[in-house]
Structure formats: C-alpha cells, structure tokens
Amino acid sequence: MKFTAKKTIKTAIAGGAFAATALLSACGGNNVAGNGSPVKNAAVEQAQAGGGQGAAAGGSDAESSGGDVNCSKHGGQVGAPGRPRMDLIAVAATDGTTPGCTEAYNVITEYYEKLPQAEGPGERVLDVQGKWTCARLTESGTEVVCGVPNSSLQLETRPAGGEQNRKFPNTTQDVQFTGYDANLRMVRFQLTTDRSGGKTYRLPLRPDAEVFSAATVCPGESVTVDDEGYGNLPCGRDQLIQQVREGNPVLARISVNGEDQITTVKEIYRP
Known about the structure:
By secondary structure, the chain is of the alpha+beta class. The chain is built from five helices and 15 strands. The chain has helices spanning 21-27, 38-42, 72-75, 101-114, 237-245; strands at residues 44-45, 69-70, 77-78, 86-91, 125-128, 132-136, 144-147, 154-159, 171-181, 186-191, 201-203, 205-213, 233-235, 251-256, 262-267. Strands 11-10-9-14-15-12-13 form a seven-stranded mixed beta sheet. The protein has a six-stranded antiparallel beta sheet with strand order 2-4-8-7-6-5. A hairpin with a 6-residue loop joins strand 7 and strand 8. It starts with 20 loop residues before the first helix and ends with a strand.
C-alpha cells in the first residue's frame, strides 16, 4: 500500500477531550442527528435517527454473516474535511476475526485527527489507538486502510454506498516494486506503463503467492529466465519482501486476482 498534501483538521476540543462519544452513540443506534458534535463536522457524518443496533460489536449485524461489516449503515459515513464521505468497513479476515464498529470509529477518527502530523506524502500514521497503522491506499485516492502489525485485524474506507474500489482485479500488470508496508502487509509499486509521474499503489501478496526470480529476488550464479524474459526460478514471497524492504527496485509482471491480491510475481530481467 503514496499520499499527497495534507489538510489541517480543525476539531473543536472541550477541555482537551476529543468528543468521540457522539459517533459511538450512532453505532449503538441512538438519535444523534443535529447534536452539534464537532466530530460530525471534522470526521463523521452521523447516521440519521433510528440507526440499527448490533454493529458496535461487529458480529451481531446480519451483514457480518457474509464477511465484511459496513459500519456506516449504523454509525454514519466518515471522511477528512474537504474530502468525499466514505463508508467505514470492518474487514473480515480469513481467520474469522473482524474489528468491532466501535473500535473502527475510534481508529478512523483518531487517524483523521492526526493527519496534520502524518508521515511523509503518504499521510501514514503509525500509532493510532496504541496499535493501529493507517494510510491512504493510493497517492491520488481518498480510501484509507488500517491494520494491526502481527494481526489479521483490518478496516478500510470505501466509496459511499458502493463496493470495494478494487484497483486491478483479474489483471496482469508490469510493475516496479518500491517498498513494503509491514504494518499494512502490502507491497508498494508503480506501473511501468505510467508516464504521468508514477503513482504509487499498494496491494497485498496472497499468502500462497508464487514468486519467480530472474536475477534479483533470489540471486544465483546465473540468470534464470524463460523464453519471454521472465524469471522462472521458484522463490519465496519472503525473499521478495526482503528485497523491496532493502530498497532494491524489482521489476516484475504480477497477476492479480478478483480480490485485488497479488497471486504471481515473475521478475522481469533487465541486462
């Protein structure tokens, strides 16, 4: 999983306490419309009266049975000032864990509050609620993804009322890897065909992703390529992650599945 200029978030704070309780009451289904909460203006567009019960725990909502939970159906949409409102999604992990909506709202609200102090052009905040890391998914977009290191917990924002905004589902792309975000468990890359200045994208490597080295990913005594110039030496995903974390710009052809996960990486050999 780069980000651009930041905008200062002006949030009314009474006595130094951030007024997050208003948005949490929306998660519980209370009527919070028109309550004048600064959170409504700074981070969350509150739900209308009579919001549904159950999403605060992230598990009793009927939608959770199908996987991801759209917390915004109960607690309102979210977004930094001046940017589009988004749905807040508690992502269902493969091991069955899903963050509760109360925690999701706490995390995303603190992230928006900390944006003025975010890291670099990526608007990345490394310490949210003591354990979460949040960042924008792409340099030009407004979607945010948050994760917990060494955990499957994840939440993200998606375009309001729509499906997940996937970038490259069921496609093959030629890319240059530029880094790895360990906290988000995503590799960063740029498209080699992008002549507009090099947008940076983030995608996760599927746990069983196949990686084939030509010369860089798993260095050997000789170059190992097929007839088309793609690496054909089987190599582990951990070796790829190590190379990009060390700053080695690996060129590769990637295959992406319908869930926007990288399933195959074939290094492109450049003499």
